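hey so i finally got around to running both of the ones u sent me last week. sorry it took forever, my laptop kept dying halfway thru and i had to restart like 3 times lol. anyway pasting them below in the order u listed, first the sequence line then the structure token line for each. didnt double check formatting much so if smth looks off just lmk and ill redo it

first one:
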Amino acid sequence: MNVFTRATVFLSLIMFSALPAMSETAHDGEYYFEQMRISMLETLTENQKLINTGQDGAPKTEKLKPEAVYTGAYEIFEKNVGKDFKLSQIKGETDVKKIAPVLAELLQAGRIAIARAQKDINREADGSVKLKKFIPAVFGSLVIRRFTEKTGILMKQTTLGRGAYHVRNPENAPDEWETAALKKFMASGWEPNKGIGVSEGNKYRYAKPIYIKKGCLACHGVPVGEKGPYGHPKEGYKVGEIRGCISVTLPK
């Protein structure tokens, strides 16, 4: 039995469990979860030549093969949401307020897994370092694009930026609702990792904060204004600070 089939998710710990039931989606939570999983694996498979192929054409490391990266991501996902709820419990679940947080959490786990794999991704077989630009934000964007094509569900990685430095990809600029959510996340006293979900017309919107990890500092740390490895100016973030959020929009 692989990690996907035996892993568990504690949805009851995710907020809004006490709210009245929302409208249902076209598919259940298990379907959307599977489509996200497939999207992650397909993205990793298509980028193996870039991130995991040596000069001789052989894989650099087993750790960067799609199933291995996904297993690592799922372990992060499982740790973040708990082990008291089996994945099978979202089979038949069509309540959007329960589905949206799971999708955001799984994408976030994949981003973290890619952040942790940066040394392996950028290290060549001869020990030299070559930046591949396959960073968490890029991985997330590719997965989101594929996932949306499969399901029609809209997702976004967005941020307010910091100081003079705004969102790096204009396509990820926050809309009015996302801006308000980000400001709440950054306000004093906000509970760590807590998301926000609201019903908006015929849609349900959910946002989950993205935090700066140690691996993010090379691009987003200090000194402020210094260009990072990919040419963007650093914003001066510290580990644990909120960089942005993952936004999910589900039809009701």
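and the second one:
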Amino acid sequence: MKSTPSPLQPLPRGAAQRQARLATPRLSREMKTMAVMLRIYCQDHHADAARDRDRLCEACAGLFDYARKRLAGCPYGSDKPTCANCQIHCYGPQQREQTRVMMRYAGPRMLLRHPVLAIAHVIDGKRAAPPKPRGGGGAAPGAKSTSD
């Protein structure tokens, strides 16, 4: 069982790099978009469930943590395309389907509740995906890679 470092201990090098990657403007906005979409979906579908500090039920909080870990390990870094346009599929089949269902529901509702994030997400989705990165650029262990 891994122990988490105390706030006084420095993060291991890899963990520090992943945290720094999430702090870039592009990935930070993508995490915020994911959180907002999950909140919309969770409030409308899991109304009776207990909530955490992010106002998510246990299942939605688990999906958010999973997405955060995958985004932190993305080999594209701040050049990351939207997942729909990505050549590397790092989500497992179950999480990919959960995310697809959640985004299909929450996406249209984002226009009214968070129009700036919604428009930024649409614009990000229109950009062409960069070439597939080579080498050990930070893909999560066990990540599947597909070629088109």
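quick thing i noticed on the 2nd:
Helices lie at 13-22, 25-45, 58-72, 93-113, 115-126.
anyway thats it, ttyl
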